[in-house]
Write a structure and sequence with these properties.
The structure is a single chain. By secondary structure, the chain is of the alpha+beta class. It is 28% helix and 25% strand. The chain is built from 11 helices and 18 strands. A hairpin with a 6-residue loop joins strand 10 and strand 11. Helix 8 crosses helix 10.
């Protein structure tokens, strides 16, 4: 998640109280909450009390007199760095103190009272699941409510996540982000004031070996089957005519497990496909479609000569990655709708091209944050597997929590039979068999005051030193 405080605004105090400066905290370039300095100071003091002064980063000091515009700007920059440092610390950023602060501030900013509401959550087949929740319910609460409605067993809930998506003109979904523990799903989706934004349930792991666990139960099987059919229909999983015939035959026999088993052998099974964007690989300004899966980022690049080539970057060869965001300064009302100012997001990763040769590759995309989340979750899975642990242990459960079982269950509808395969698909040429023949341009380091992502840096603990013979 990319945290920034790109703007401040002066707001009138309640009940005739003096005006004050509010700091607008953005997540992924969208306004999340509006807070005062005193509120952030309270958060800081609570974190210090719980974790110690040596763990919590330094906080901007208090001022006796009213701040000048220059001092307000200086404090804004300091608070932004503070929030980024806290979020990136595994202990502080994952703490309930930090996350509950952000949830409460989000609800107060959007002025949504705590009350019972009905929230629609989509399944991959387009089916709507309506759950009754509180507006103040966090992401885990909503996920459990959906699981209860579908009668998904407790031990399978953690294999799925809720994602914020935007419906495209062709009926597909563009993934915005995975909903996080610091936000309230109902508030997040309704505050966008756009019906194109919806919440969808989808599996949250990458290794297809975990499909076996999910398929043990009929609801898990039905959810995985619906997602697989949807991915094929939208062209995320590539099939030829013969494979399509076999899949359709299995559908007609209602052989869901066999259908998934066959799909697991197909290209891009389990990948998340992103919207077309721009990359500097193999040269600046190339249009690319990026897919994430199988512990890699797959590139389908359209070169300037209109030739389309393909290549993959393994996550184990990425030494690190970072997200940068450029937010234009807004002279209008700072609390306006999030879509009115263009936010440029870039994901850059340092890749081991050959022995002792690291190079940067940059992707410019509104989905850069989602790409970063995918990389991090791949690394998390790899590290659990490397340590001999179980992925089940990655899924946290509230200590005092238990699933709130719905009074009525809803079955997962079986998707319709597959349409005819896309006859226009042709195998693409390999971008580079060893990814060593192309000289990559490094990303520039902006000194602009608007470049607010300099600290959003991720080291990769799954990075491996690979020799030339392995490349």
């Amino acid at each position: 998640m990319h945290f920034s405080i790109p703007e401040t605004e002066t707001r009138a105090g309640d009940g005739g109280a003096p005006a004050y400066v509010a700091y607008n905290i953005h997540v992924n370039g969208v306004l999340h909450c509006r807070v005062r300095y005193s509120q952030l100071l309270g958060l800081h003091e609570q974190l210090r009390k719980e974790y110690g002064a040596n763990v919590v980063p330094a906080f901007p000091p208090k001022k006796i007199f009213t701040l000048t515009p220059a001092e307000v700007e200086q404090r804004r920059e300091q608070l932004e760095k503070y929030m980024q440092a806290v979020r990136q610390d595994p202990t502080l950023g994952g703490s309930e103190t930090f996350n509950s602060f952000l949830r409460k501030a989000q609800q107060e900013t959007q002025q949504i009272p705590t009350e019972e509401v009905v929230l629609e959550v989509l399944l991959s087949n387009g089916q709507k699941v309506k759950v009754t929740i509180l507006t103040s319910d966090q992401t885990e609460d909503v996920l459990e409510a959906v699981a209860s409605k579908l009668d998904l067993p407790d031990d399978l809930v953690g294999y799925f996540s809720l994602f914020l998506v935007r419906k495209t003109k062709d009926g597909a979904f563009s993934f915005v982000r995975k909903l996080q523990e610091f936000e309230l799903p109902y508030v997040s989706v309704t505050s966008l004031h756009n019906p194109e934004f919806q919440i969808i349930l989808r599996k949250s792991y990458w290794d297809s070996a975990y499909d076996d666990d999910v398929m043990e139960h009929r609801v898990g099987l039905n959810l995985l089957y619906a997602q697989t059919v949807s991915d094929i229909e939208h062209g995320w999983i590539l099939v030829n005519k013969e494979q399509h015939r076999q899949l359709k035959s299995l559908q007609e026999k209602v052989s869901k497990k066999e259908f998934i088993r066959l799909a697991q052998t197909l290209k891009y099974y389990g990948y998340l496909k992103f919207d077309p964007c721009v990359t500097d690989f193999p040269e600046k300004g190339c249009h690319v479609v990026v897919s994430a899966g199988n512990n890699e980022l797959n590139f389908q690049v359209r070169l300037p000569n209109e030739q389309i080539k393909e290549g993959s970057f393994k996550v184990t060869r990425m030494r690190c990655w970072r997200v940068t965001s450029s937010v234009p300064m807004n002279n209008g009302p700072s609390g306006s709708s999030p879509g009115k100012s263009e936010v440029k997001l870039e994901l850059a990763f340092e890749y081991l091209m050959s022995k002792d040769r690291l190079q940067w590759v940059t992707i410019t995309s509104p989905q850069a944050i989602m790409l970063s989340i995918c990389l991090q979750s791949m690394v998390d899975e790899l590290m659990v597997k490397k340590s001999g642990g179980s992925i089940r242990k990655m899924f946290r459960r509230r200590v005092n929590g238990a699933l709130r079982r719905s009074d009525s269950q809803q079955a997962v509808k079986s998707p319709p039979l597959l349409d005819s395969p896309d006859a226009s698909w042709e195998p693409m040429a390999k971008l580079s068999s060893k990814l060593t023949s192309v000289s990559l341009r490094g990303i520039s380091h902006s000194s602009s005051a608007n470049d607010v992502g300099a600290n959003d840096f991720h080291g990769n603990y799954a990075f491996e030193g690979i020799g030339d013979e392995d490349l």
